[in-house]
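Quick start: read one record
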Amino acid sequence: MPGVVSLDTLKIHHSLPIRLYDPAINYFEDNPFHLVALETARMVKVRFILNVVQDIHKQIMGAVAGELKQAHLDGVEICRRENQVDVHGLADLIIASPGETPRDIDLPQSQKALSVAELTCRPDGCTFFLVAEAKNVIPQLFIDRMHRQSRPKR
């Protein structure tokens, strides 16, 4: 959707629940978040894309270009090849951080770090979530949900 919708529309799209039941990391093929973005791009007749894939240091690892769906799939393959790791067993304790700015600019961006943590932590384990640079106020909806919970839920 970037480049074809307003910033307000983009914010709304990013506020939708993207995972109904399971953690969303590496969840691409039937991901409702992605499907809405793809549908939007098709509505405005996007016929060509050019994307770069960056590593955690913002260095370009690869570039993809071409027809919308195929070029995006090619980019996903680069990401999986370069970033996917095998995890052998679940941990008792996870310390999760989104990394530096802009990944920790606010709660919606920062919470992406929890996707990996909840896949790699035992159900009865503990996760610490560290966010260093969050500049925006924590949304009241999030605060209310945290107060209603007696303990973290999967």
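The mean pLDDT is 79.
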